[in-house]
Write a structure and sequence with these properties.
Length: about 575
Amino acid sequence: MDFRVLGPVLVRDLVLGAGKHRAVLAVLLLEANRAVRIERLVDLLWADQPPERARNLVSGYVSKVRKALDGRTDVRVETWRGGYRLVVPPDSVDLYRFRRLVQEARGGTGDHAVVDVLSEALALWTGPALVDVDLPGLAPSVTEALEQERVAAFEELVDARLRIGADTDLLRRLGEAVDAHPFRERLVGQHMTALAQCGRPAEALAAYRRCADALRDELGVAPGAALRELERAVRADAFTPPAPRLRPAQLPADLADFTGRTEELAALTPGEGPLVITGMPGTGKTALAVHWAHRMRERFPDGQLHVDLRGEVTPRQALLRLLDGLGVRPEQGDERALSALFRSTVDGKKLLLLLDGATSTAQVRPLLPGSPSCQVIITSSRRLDGLALRCGVRSLRLGGFRSADSVALLQSLLGERALRDPVSVRRLATLCCGLPVAVRTAAVRLAAHPTWPVAHLVEHMADEERWATSLTLPEDDGSFLASAFQELPDGARSLLGYFGLLPREELGASALTTLTNRPQRWVEDGLAALHDAHLLLETVPGVYRLPTVVRLSVKPFLPAREVAAEALERWRYPGVVRLFAVDSA
């Protein structure tokens, strides 16, 4: 910012002096980008006693201003229709920046955001406007109107602060403001409210009496109805201060050693609607969402909400948790009523909402705010295509780590141990199949066995029979894919077992129908469920194979020995080769 009129008139990197050219510049700044006639400048500079050749003197002062401003980008003084116009970017003049910020706050959402913007606006004032400029013809009403703009902005700031909750700093500032404007009843009422909020009703009543006495003695009037009603409420101990608005900060802790995902982080753009991160279990969807949310949290001053949707969490249960995080505790209400209450509660707020581990579109839809100022990020091991169809949700499919990122994470987690055997570290990274959760689990296993060289765990994991157990921690019920397998329909789990009989093959619906000896519809439903859960890779349309990590974890779902033998016998029948070829076409 270059130009200041809200206090002493200043121009950055310029000594103005105390002459009339300073006053001319002040007028041109007040009317920035608008023409000011020479007659108007004469009136302002000398009021009713202009000197001879006043117009020529004004032209000389303008020339002095023009020379002083020469060389500044986008700033110039133009001769314009019998007067002069200062052309300047509006935001470079503190008055116009102040007005823009006040308008931004009035259209803003969330009390914390309003406080931030109005605080920035009021900080531009360093004293009474034009305090050091001699303009005899400037009506006092002009500077008084500017002061009223400042006080009105301060009152709006106080309203937002009171909704958040009064504190000693606010009490101090209100006391100073009331001393400066003892007849301004809105300020007095705000001061009384702040005192009552802080448990000081006697001082609130004393503030009322001072205002009432001043109004009676100086103006001959009584306080207005609103102030009298507030005084009665405080006196009757019926004043109920508004509860401080809760600013939730529920994000889980970020990973201190978060690694990689540069491209994915760049693709997660806030402000473009809800985002869903999908992918196979273990790819780090939650870690990515939490890391991104922490990076973005300053954009959402009204807080961050988090709800874990894993398991059998119903939309109603999730809504109750979200409302509780906002300080709203409804005693009753069905899912629709709670969803409407949630949307109303967050309307206009700048909130970040993390819905973690979503299991279906139906589970998520009631939780989506209606306000575009709220940012929603969803993680799910399912595709949730319905959200894209019905709600315009954008989707990011998260794949595995690049090899370099897996190695970097292992080096970060293992420290000196990794440096002693970099070849085994690279081999371990490969065996972790690009899954961050596998990398971290491997590092935890090694930390639990400090005498193991990295090569020892590599040897275990290289044995496909022991791969899954090598990445199972003692307190876990199974591998990190266990919960994903458990959530599958029975038919999909059974079909996954048949895939496990031919783990390296690419299979289509017809081949699987012969292999399983089940109806094709049963096979197609199972394929859809497995693909939806990211447990199959579609190599060409209608043909699938197991990802490496699933292939290494599928053993518990293999068919019983006799059933498996019969299935493999059908597979060896020459016709199956033909069916498979058709599927792969």
